[in-house]
Amino acid sequence: MSFAEFGGPDVLQLVDAEEPHAGPGRIRIAVRAAGVNPVDWRVREGQVLGAHPVELPSGVGLDAAGVVDEVGEGVTGVEVGDRVFGEGADTYADFAVLGAWARMPEGLTFEEAAGYPSVVETALRVMREVGVRPGQTLLVSGASGGVGSAVLQIARERGVTVIGTAGAANQEYLRDLGAVATTYGEGWVERVRRLGEVHAALDLAGSGVIRELVELTGSPERVVSIADLGAPEFGVRFSGVAGSVPAALAEAVDLISRGKLHIPVEKSYSLAEAASAHIDSQAGHTRGRRVLVI
Q: Do you know which SUPFAM superfamilies this protein is assigned to (predicted)?
């Protein structure tokens, strides 16, 4: 799957491309499933994301799960035939090269595994950047998507209380993940105030709430956004540069294996349905993850 110009979902084209190969320090996998992330459609639209410079024509996708079929020079600890999940480039494809990977935990399907890499890395990163500590309360705006689902569970494991906002249909889902749930929309700030003091906040949906999050926390330094490119206008950090993906994958494997992290797959699509997956992802209201099955 690739695009030759920036634009809407219709610029995505299923094309025959030359197979990539695993260079030094990389592996190649036969892709079984690829994660659909908001960064995918943001890059496709041509949004300026410093961590993701794009040369056209460009492939699509960062996350994938599959079977190792090439091991690059200098790589140890993984063999052809291993089931892995991780992050690379152009993962909406039959074959993809990964720069970070881990063996899939027992019992995880390829579809499920493809939904974790970038999501867990992002969740760990923004929690670190916002500086929330055990015993404090974290407000998460747009809490029911992939990153929100991970934040809620990791926060619970770390002794952080979470207030999560989401649509009415996802209130029970947030509560099941350990959050104090409330709806967004008119009056949401007062509803949050009634739930108690907020020490830090994350904007995961980009729904124009930065000013209110600063108001609720008392300082722009206590707010981090991954979805609103205008956040710096309010003194709020926009977090778009990944940290250590191998470390995040290792923590994901640990949490999943101990039953402390589970992100459901809300919907699966075929590779030919990538445009539909982008439309649905951009519409929001996701519960968990969306993935492509290759």
A: GroES-like (SSF50129), NAD(P)-binding Rossmann-fold domains (SSF51735)
Cβ proximity of 243 and 220 under 8 Å = no
Whether 118 and 61 have beta carbons less than 8 Å apart is answered as: no
How many Cα atoms within 13 Å fall on the side-chain side of residue 287?
A: 12
The answer to whether residues 152 and 164 touch, using CB atoms and an 8 Å cutoff, is yes
- 12-53 pLDDT per residue, tens: 999 998 999 999 999 999 999 999 998 899 899 988 665 567
Cβ–Cβ < 8 Å for 205, 139: no
Q: Is the overall model pTM greater than 0.90, yes or no?
A: yes
138, containing H or E segment: strand 137-141
Give the pLDDT confidence of 223-238 residue by residue, as tens digits.
999 999 999 999 999 9
- CB-based contacts of 75: which residues, under 8 Å, 6+ apart? 22, 25, 26, 27
